[in-house]
């Protein structure tokens, strides 16, 4: 294995889009930021220097961080932020991982502009379990606000009203007519490494006249399947093979949001171009029908087609015996608020607990036995107030708290994540730090504890780090708690995270020295 060193300089940069210019926070002046390249088992060392007037942290989304929880990055969970003028070295190993992931800022809404790709190639000499592509391309989806993104969320926090929706979607940082162009040659195969780095939107992706073969999601190989539409929640990644089957021509690529609910929707389509070599200027553009914003069947159909590869080289190791069987309701509601415009404030919760960010880092507090006054370990394994999860409006008031759910080292966990309809049901792309999980089941309506488990897939469930819990439905996940630390679990729609749809698991140390979290690095920032 090799050491891969990167320098991440956090700097402001003026960017013009949609005819207006604003300064944004970037890494090394780039939007999207630099791509991190490595191979499986490599050691990655990123030297971060903060040259902006914001506190910053970086999260390596989907990197398991085996015994390197100090480098995971969510602010106040595993580290205090790197303050203006400060530095921090992220140091982790890509143990047993290969594929496409993303990194992003993990404090407030900075990830809107601070994100980039992680490409992990297989070990030298190890082939892909699919035909070798002619070449590989990275495609990053983003969202763009004309106004300052931090102002957008701060305003919303103060007013109690939902934040303004973005003004555009971007593909590789570009919008509209000056968009991104993917150049291809007839007859060749391309591996597209696709990343949804949008802040608040699950997205469909299409290329007119073309199909994709999906081979990997969230850096886990899948059984290949063909589709004309990809579906990615924010934080999710998909590797798909595109075969350039056409003679010269221009084909439209589109990303469009999925939202099958009644709350304010963002229906801005982002576009880019697939252009064949030798296309003449007279050849016109082929476009295709974009999925309607409420195309539930396309979104669910895509997730249903995902199966882990489960081959001799890449076996699927689903926990069969479960130590912790948890039931989490997730949803958005309102609480009274005297200083807010309508007298109420939007709030989101898991099991009726809306998570309050601490002001010091939880992992440090845990490691030095100073968690008192920072967090408690009484996060409920079932909702505090039972109710009909898909019924009418109820349970509008939630409790606040900074609570973790404690897991013994190497214990196995099943979580039924049940979407609720406190305000309106909504799809929630839910993300776990520190481990992948297996998606063993999903369904619409209320989870049925007697019948639904009989239908669980314990043979080849897809392995992911982020899963969409369907609107007014549920998803069942399983994982093994073999990574000591404090691991954030939250909706990856940033607006829901801001409202409190988050919690953390505390995984205890094991007995032997290679089952314990090592001491923190000496440059770990202080709060
Ligand atoms: Cu991609 Cu906790 O985030």
UniProtKB/TrEMBL annotation:
It is found in: Secreted, Extracellular space, Apoplast. GO terms for biological process: lignin catabolic process. One of its GO terms (molecular function) is hydroquinone:oxygen oxidoreductase activity. Residues 10-123, 137-277, 385-510 form the Plastocyanin-like domain. Binds 4 Cu cations per monomer. PROSITE patterns: MULTICOPPER_OXIDASE1 (PS00079), MULTICOPPER_OXIDASE2 (PS00080). It catalyses: 4 hydroquinone + O2 = 4 benzosemiquinone + 2 H2O. Coiled coil: none annotated. Its cofactor is Cu cation. Its EC number is 1.10.3.2. Gene3D superfamilies: Cupredoxins - blue copper proteins. Keywords: Apoplast, Copper, Glycoprotein, Lignin degradation, Metal-binding, Oxidoreductase, Repeat, Secreted, Signal. One of its GO terms (cellular component) is apoplast. Pfam families: Cu-oxidase, Cu-oxidase_2, Cu-oxidase_3. Lignin degradation and detoxification of lignin-derived products. Belongs to the multicopper oxidase family. This is Laccase. It comes from Capsella rubella. The lineage of its organism: Eukaryota, Viridiplantae, Streptophyta, Embryophyta, Tracheophyta.
């Amino acid at each position: 294995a090799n050491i891969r060193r990167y320098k991440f300089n956090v700097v402001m940069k003026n960017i013009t889009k949609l005819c207006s210019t604003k300064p944004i926070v970037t890494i090394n002046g780039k939007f999207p930021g630099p791509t991190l390249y490595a191979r499986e088992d490599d050691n990655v060392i990123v030297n971060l220097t903060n040259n902006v007037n914001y506190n910053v942290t970086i999260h390596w989304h989907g990197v398991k961080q085996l015994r390197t929880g100090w480098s995971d990055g969510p602010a106040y969970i595993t580290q205090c932020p790197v303050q203006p003028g400060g530095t921090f070295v992220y140091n982790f190993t890509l143990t047993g991982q290969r594929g496409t992931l993303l990194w992003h800022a993990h404090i407030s809404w900075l990830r809107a502009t601070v994100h980039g790709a992680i490409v992990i190639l297989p070990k030298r000499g190890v082939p892909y379990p699919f035909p070798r592509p002619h070449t590989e391309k990275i495609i990053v989806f983003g969202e763009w606000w004309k106004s300052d993104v931090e102002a957008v969320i701060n305003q919303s926090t103060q007013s109690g009203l939902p934040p303004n929706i973005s003004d555009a979607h971007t593909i590789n940082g570009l919008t509209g007519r000056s968009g991104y162009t993917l150049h291809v040659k007839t007859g060749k195969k391309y591996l597209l490494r696709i990343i949804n780095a949008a802040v608040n939107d699950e997205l469909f992706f299409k290329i007119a006249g073309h199909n994709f073969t999906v081979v990997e999601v969230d850096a886990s190989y899948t059984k290949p399947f063909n589709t004309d539409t990809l579906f990615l929640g924010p934080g999710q990644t998909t590797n798909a093979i595109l075969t350039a089957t056409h003679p010269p021509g221009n084909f439209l690529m589109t990303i469009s949001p999925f939202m099958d609910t009644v709350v304010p929707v963002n229906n801005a389509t982002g576009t880019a171009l697939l252009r064949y070599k030798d296309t003449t200027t007279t050849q016109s553009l082929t476009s295709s029908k974009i999925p309607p914003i409420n195309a539930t069947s396309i979104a669910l159909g895509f997730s249903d087609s995902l199966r882990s590869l489960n081959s001799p080289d890449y076996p699927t190791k689903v926990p069969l015996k479960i130590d912790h069987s948890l039931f989490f309701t997730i949803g958005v509601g309102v609480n009274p608020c005297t200083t807010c415009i309508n007298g109420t404030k939007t709030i989101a919760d898991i099991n009726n607990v809306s998570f309050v960010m601490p002001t010091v880092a939880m992992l440090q507090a845990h490691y030095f036995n100073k968690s008192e006054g920072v967090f408690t370990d009484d996060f409920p394994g079932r909702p505090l107030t039972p109710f009909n999860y898909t019924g009418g409006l109820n349970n509008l008031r939630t409790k606040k708290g900074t609570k973790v759910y404690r897991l013994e080292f190497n214990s196995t966990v099943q979580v039924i994540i049940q979407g609720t309809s406190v305000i309106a049901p909504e799809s929630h792309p839910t993300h776990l730090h520190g481990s992948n999980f297996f998606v063993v089941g999903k369904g619409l309506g209320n989870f049925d504890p007697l019948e639904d488990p009989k239908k669980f897939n314990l043979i080849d469930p897809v392995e992911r780090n982020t899963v969409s819990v369907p609107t007014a439905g549920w998803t069942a996940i399983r994982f093994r708690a073999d990574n000591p630390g404090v691991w954030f679990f939250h909706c990856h729609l940033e607006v829901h995270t801001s409202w409190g749809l988050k919690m953390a698991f505390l995984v205890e140390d094991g007995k032997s020295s290679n089952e314990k979290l090592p001491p923190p690095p000496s440059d770990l920032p202080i709060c």
